[in-house]
Amino acid sequence: MLPSTGVDQTTDSSGIEPGAGGVGLSDPKYSTVRRKLLDLINRLHNTGVQRDVDLPVIAVIGNQSAGKSSLIESISGITLPRASECRLTCSDAQPWQCIVSLRFVTDQHGQALGHARNEIFGDTIYDKAQVEERIRRAQRAALNPGTKASQFLQGADEDPACPELSFTTNCVCLQIRGSDVADLSFCDLPGLISSVGKGGKESDIGLITSLVTFYISKPSCIVLLTVACETDFENQGAHHLAKQYDPEGKRTIGVLTKPDRIPSGEEAQWTRFIKNEYEPLDNGWFSVKQPDSRALASGITWADARLHEREYFSSASIWSELDPEYQRYLGTANLTERLSQILSELIAKRLPELQDELQNLLQTTEEALRQLPKPPSNDAFAEILHLLSNFARDMSKHLEGTPEGNGLLQTLRPVQERFREAIRETAPDFRPYQRRTKGSRCQTDSSEAAQLQQPEFLQAEEPHAWKTVNDNHAIYVDEVMQRARGATTRELPDYYPYMVVQQYISAITVKWDVPTKNLFDAIERILTTYVRQIVTQHFAKFAHGGLQQSVVNIMNEHIKECCTQTIARVSWILALEQRPCTLNGHYYSNYRDTFMSRYRAYRTNSSSSDLMSKLERYPSALRSVKMTTDFQLEVTTVLSGLSAIGISGTKATDLPKLLPTDPYEPALNIMACVRAYFQVAYKRYVDYVPMAVDHELVLGLDKDGALESVLLKGLGITGPDGQRRCKDFLQEPPNVVTRRQELQKRWERLDTAKKELMDIWM
């Protein structure tokens, strides 16, 4: 079996005389327009755009030996090889000529080509007798795509022992021009088979069915169904296939072949088709009579064959006795005329639709191309520099901070806040009462302990510092006093070594190491993840060439180097805090005096800690007349009396200083000093550590524009081998390359087809 796709046939029948050698139409009025339309469709087929849009075409189908080839011969006026499959194109009123060409829409592996490739196969033929051999040779070339087509033009006219293919979607195209052929365009498809002969392949059955289905499933395909009268109609699979894809019979034209072989007694059954009574079709059923094998062997001419056909239909009673309205469905000439009309009308109807479809497909294809990554530049080095520059600039912007809610700095803020809280939680929990009094009236409940840990004067600046109190971490006044006495060496009475304060402070600051490491590790982890996301945004399209992963690796190493410097800087800050020191004397003294007053007040009024709380609330309570109590009035009296004797500037919270001396006064002083120093030290520490990490690690990634130079050095593209490395980095994935090629070829054939359509209106 030989290759097959379609046949585009266009003819100009003006000035035809009956029996001149081909079937023509006698009305020259429409021939020019019709020929122009059919030529356009043929040119569109040459672009390969039939892969994208539904082009009008006539597909000739039928079972094997149903008379398809003879039917095509009767229309074209040439002799075809038996079982040949080809494409015909006929046009123009000029001396007869035939051009044979090969149209490749798939490569030798069966993969679709982006753009149809048309190759002229040999010189133009002017002698009809030479066509049959040329077609045979062209078919061999189509079935052996791995061999140059020109090799089949010369040499013996015989089939290869083992052809590469049994069937192919590539086709042999015939352009037949002359004044004695009809205006038509059609595709002759392989005959359907249900079994294979010697040397055949079982897979050929499915291949042929798929090829036929490919054509007739399209809405703009006119199905020319050939049915041999010598075989039971229901056993002819081509009919069932046509009905499957055209169930209402709107685009199927039936052709009864071999009418002279109707078994005796079955004549009425077949005439019912011509009358459109059985299996009715919108365009009806026709019948044609072709020469039998004896006539062909004797070398009957085309003109004699048409004459014998007319004589047969006029003499055979089964056909001659039909009403005149059915006589127009008999003979090749009537069939050809009707086919030409139907195809021309379909083309005229489809042209505006094709314009819209092509325009929409062009826009869709252009959008698909835009969605693909840009193809690699010819100057790979310049493109890499451009990519790195854009990445470094964008990365620097993110390191500085962006307003997005999920920006880098916004992501780091909760981590920094947890660090601040962790350091704040290391504050010493001093209790101004003895551990041995636990259970006595001096013991506070949990709410009072919370008041001691988070006094009201700190709530304004640290509203949520503590939510719970843990007695296991409490430091009682008698324990402080015991440590102070144990540290005394040569000091005078009531003097205690500074070392006690220093030891308490060191015991606090040594706890800052773990929260500091947790902060650093969290920031490093977040930064690494965030940088990887930015790398992906910029270089994901270049993952295939290794550029994305290379940049990720370089950035990871760069982050590690910055981490090493940052760890050293943060460790230095932590080491500074191991020795108590501050020049912020005002705040330290203010905190110390406030804590001292609070501890004294609690010691004096141990049954209740209300004294200091009331004194702290005194200024705000006094503003509201309704809230003024006897206590506030008495405090006002005391403060006024002190002012009257010359002690001015005294605040309500200073009054506990007037309380009598407590034997634990030295311990209370140590507690107040340590607690006050913590407030000063922790506040600067929770600022300086995040600032150092930000400066050395976050902003340090692009310090002095280092990011771009680090990437250039890491990628190694500035050396003698740089250009090659750049090209390797920019390699595209094979699927992207293939997809772009497909889209570009699709765009080219769509654009070519669009221009062909536009030219017809020019």
Automatic annotation (TrEMBL):
Q: Where is the composition biased (Polar residues)?
A: 1-14, 440-449
Keyword terms, alphabetized: GTP-binding, Nucleotide-binding
Region annotation Disordered: residue ranges?
1-24, 429-449
Q: Name one GO cellular component term.
A: mitochondrion
Domain (Dynamin-type G) spans 52-352
Gene Ontology biological process terms from the UniProt entry: endocytosis; intracellular distribution of mitochondria; mitochondrial fission; peroxisome fission
The GED domain extends over 667-762
Signal peptide as annotated in the record:
none
Matching SUPFAM superfamilies: P-loop containing nucleoside triphosphate hydrolases (SSF52540)
Name one molecular function that GO assigns to this entry. GTP binding
Q: Which InterPro entries match?
A: Dynamin, Dynamin_GTPase, Dynamin_N, Dynamin_stalk, G_DYNAMIN_dom, GED, GED_dom, P-loop_NTPase
PROSITE patterns hit by this protein: G_DYNAMIN_2 (PS51718), GED (PS51388)
Name recorded for this polypeptide: Dynamin family protein
Please report the organism this UniProt entry assigns to the protein: Rhodofomes roseus
